Amino acid sequence: MFQFIRPVILLVIIACWWVAAASATDTLTIGVAGKAVDTIQNIQQVSQSHPLSLAQWLHTPDAGTRRLLWLLKWLGILILLMLVVRYCKETANTRMSMNMVYYIREAVYDKVQRAGFGFHDVHSSGQLINRALSDLQNVRAFVQTAVLVTLEIALTVAFNIVLIATLNKWVAVLSLVPLPIWTYYILRFSRKIQPVAKSVMEAEDRNVSIITENIAGVHVVKAFATEGLEITKYQANCDTFKDRVLKRIRMFADFQPIIRSIAMASHLSLFLVAGILMIHGKMKAGDLFILGGAMGAILARLQLVGNINEQYQNAMVSSRRLYEIVMAQPSVQDRPGACKLPDGPGTVTFENVSFGYDPTKPALRDVSFGIKGGSVVAIVGPTGAGKTTLVNLVARFYDVQQGRVLIDGVDVRDLTLASLRTQVAVVFQETYLFSDTVAGNIAYGRPNISDGDIEAAARFAQAHEFIENLPRGYQTILGERGASLSGGQRQRLAIARAIVTNPRVLILDDATAAVDPETESLIRRRMRFVMEGRTTFIIAHRISTVKQADLVVVVEQGRVTQAGTHAELMALDGHYREIADAQLHGDDAAENQADAPSHMQRVQSAGEVEAAVLGVEKMG
Amino acid sequence: MTVLGAGKGAKKPPIISAAVARAAQIESDDEDKYRPIQWPLMKRLMMSLGTFKWWYLTAITLGLGQVILDMQGLQFIKWIVNYGADYAGGKFPGISTAAASWHIVNIIGMWTLVFIGSVVLQRFVIIIMTRAGESVQFEFRQKIFAQLQRLSMSFYDRTKLGRIISRCTTDVNSLREVNVWGIWQVVSSVMIMIIAAIYMVHEDARLFLSIVWLGPVLYVLSRVYHRKAARGYQVAREGFTRVSTNLAENITGMRVVTAFNRQDPNLDVFNGLQQINTVNNMAVSRVNGVYQPLLEVVRFWGRVTILLYSGYLVACGRIRVGSVIAMYGYWDWFMNPVITLGAFYNQLMMAMAGAERVFGLLDLKPEVQDEPQARELPRIEGRVRFENVTFGYNPDRPVLHDINFEAKSGQMVALVGPTGGGKSSIISLIARFYQPQQGRVLVDAHDIQQVTGESLHKQMGLVLQVNYLFSGTVMENIRYACPGASEQDVIDAAKAIGSYDCIMSLANGFETDVGERGASMSLGQRQLICFTRAFLSDPRIFMLDEATSAVDTATELIVQQSLEKLLAGRTTFVVAHRLSTIMRADQILVVEGGRISERGTHRELLTAGGKYAHLYRQFVLQDQ
């Protein structure tokens, strides 16, 4: 936790100073007002029964009156001081916490961006987002309260006890007695209410997820006419939810009298003692006034102990998790002395490559093959065979466990990541676009490219036409709050995004699965020009896509089982001919992505549900 | 150890600031958080508390009792101080110190009794009031949910999921401020102010008049403060949403970020948004920093006046020092409600915004609804006929024009055609998700508008591309449509359709938890479960929107076989993507631009040499 405070330590100290100043001013105010009451009691001793006008009274040379006026003048000055001090306290507090949040969030963001694929395989996006947002919030809340509020509590208690001690040190001792009991009950309450509060929160989450599911599956509900069933299900949840809410209320109603009684008991006993001391002439009205004020201030502050305890526990867990992210080593890093990729035609060689996401379970075993620069390679094979893994190694999203992957004769691990990834462009299986303009998305890999180049890339990817038809053309903003595109359109944008970087090696991982066959054949025709002079990897299911490749590599269970041209492989028994035959009897026909009504598209954009639950708007 | 990245001070290239500007510009999705107070809405909100009228009345009565008891505390202090001061001042020469002390003990004793009364009352107030309020809250929740079940598909097309969720969460919660403590807050605040004013006037009317004007001043200041703060928070929240959206987006899209090596510019954009966020928050804290102490100063002004003026009154012998302390205390009692009401006004405006949306949702009329004289649909054979059907999701832009066709009982109809041609719309109309603007849809001889939705849907099955599964086990999902089916029925159905082996190969067989949204299963497996679910409900009419994405060849084979069993003997409509499916159809409808351009069997259409034949040659033959 404290490693997070270090960069803002100066701001923390400033904030602490203002907290101390505010506590001191508050206590002083109580003291001065009390002295004023004392003075009024003195005035009462010498009061005359003949009436005096206010103006006359203000100018009487009487010592009591002069002293009262003098005290009230100081009270006025204290109030103005308080105005300044409170302002400084508030802004210093915010400045400290905002800066801390800024630095931690920056560190987490940067780390997560650079951590590499391996890290993200282990941590789900939702989990990481949650950490960066709510864990950070916990740490911030803690520093704000634990450091500042603890200080405030400690100082307020100390100052007020000192104030009471100036009146009578035995009364001060007496006023200390209820504090441990009071604190104990506050902590006990916060400990007892925590599980109950948590169970209420869980019921509420469950409530939201029932609604979410119901809406996401609304066509199923309607189609099977199960509305009644859904209502029963929801009502059952509401019943538990309500029970838990009422339990929390009952617990509150049980504790509230205890806590109030302790506070009241301490007030009553102090007033009793003070009253008796007054009888004995050892205390005055103002002292009793101060006693009431000071004790009220102490108890009000101590009431915050319950929150701190809870926040402290949350913050310990949260800061450990954040620290874990910030300290994570990127799975793939530049080696010392890594060089830039030298010019070359783009040959790619796999030499005895073995790799597993979990090293004990290899996903690729002893894979070797070489590809001439500028050729088109198709990779086919069943789901889970290792096709995507293979191309991920070319872009060095992971490091191989054995063997080497070479581009133009250089081991990819000897290259700087920056130079490698500007030369290798990937179109992923799942298209991810950012909530930016269409142009911004296409230019993602080369932010300062000209509009003409963006358009050229879009034309190659068969995207120009539909982009022109969008409400604001290339300046249309995409994502949750912008235009929504079909799966095929999104894939075409992803292809344009890859082409724009002018890569030496282009990898298309099932990049046209959602594009309808008609458009796909158009893309294929255009892409021939694009593929000119680069090495292209294509992972595809459709034989029509695969068959024009210079080389077809069949991957099964992590091994390359067949390699050759379409014609060669068709002549052999094996997986390739099997799937080719199967497709001739039942592949995608003259049909494209269904024109699903919008709610279905909406449901398809996975993650939205999760985002809605998290309260985080995520861009499609 | 560089735990934290050094803040990059270098000046940003224009590309980055442009990106920050774009990100900052993206329209905020937040709905209105505040609405002015509207009486009709208030009235309706009050009416919804009606069921618990007596609860509220009891709690408020008890609560007022508690407040009055609490306010007596100052009277006891006044007694003690006056008695003590008088005794010390030698006014009671005949009384021993012991007897005087006993007098103090008695006062404290009475005070204790009053306090006990207050604690007991408070406990009942809390329990009664919150129980009533929470009950109203849950009534709202259930009404909303029931309404959501009634609303038609077109509502779900128009409304984003996030919006619907926030009706049930944020908006309902905003009503809590009114339902649970709202009335009490207003009633008790007013009562407290009146009682405090009476006490102060009783002590000295001129003293009260010299400070009472601070009340309105405080109220105005407090309103100004809450308005400014609310606006500031709104801006800050929007800025924070941008930060978190950017963060979420770049974490989710991390693979693309890595592939395009965008980490450095992304960090700059992110920090740009963070800086805006910091500035916004500082602005809010400055508002807090100015106004909160200012409100305090107004109260203090009153206190100083009390001390000064009562100094004079004491000097004249009009009041005594105990009254000064009591006045000081009553002044706080008088001013606290002013601040409470100022804050409550904001909450009330939030509740107005929430109430407006909640009532708006509850008032929506479902577009497709059972007619008042709707009949039960008897067991049907499964003929389906479209008569001159015209339909558009937006009535001004029809997506289907004058559609006519008939499917005989047990026939399989394949719908083919380009994206946006209207295939899915036809399916949706058969399912009565929407109402056609013209023409009729008939099942056997019944217009589906004239029958009850439930009796119609019980005889229909639907499987969409999105193989939607509910969280729960496979067993529960299959049984979803027929809750009465036994486990054996489910197993029999799975065996009959051929999905049994596939389901048994899952981690826990039929008891496997499908995970939220069925995420943990492959596409093919989910499709099979949906088929089994539809099969178990034994529909007369079955509709299928075939998946476009390819699954691997082995699973594909099982899917095709079970599909065949599922379709046997039922009238079936398929939005078809696979040649094998289309070739099997008894009737193919080519739907283009909202019209049926060709119809017939595969062979007939090929011979006719129209669009279908063209498509078939271009995309199928070309590959062979």
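The CA atoms of residues 274 and 288 of chain A lie 6 Å apart.
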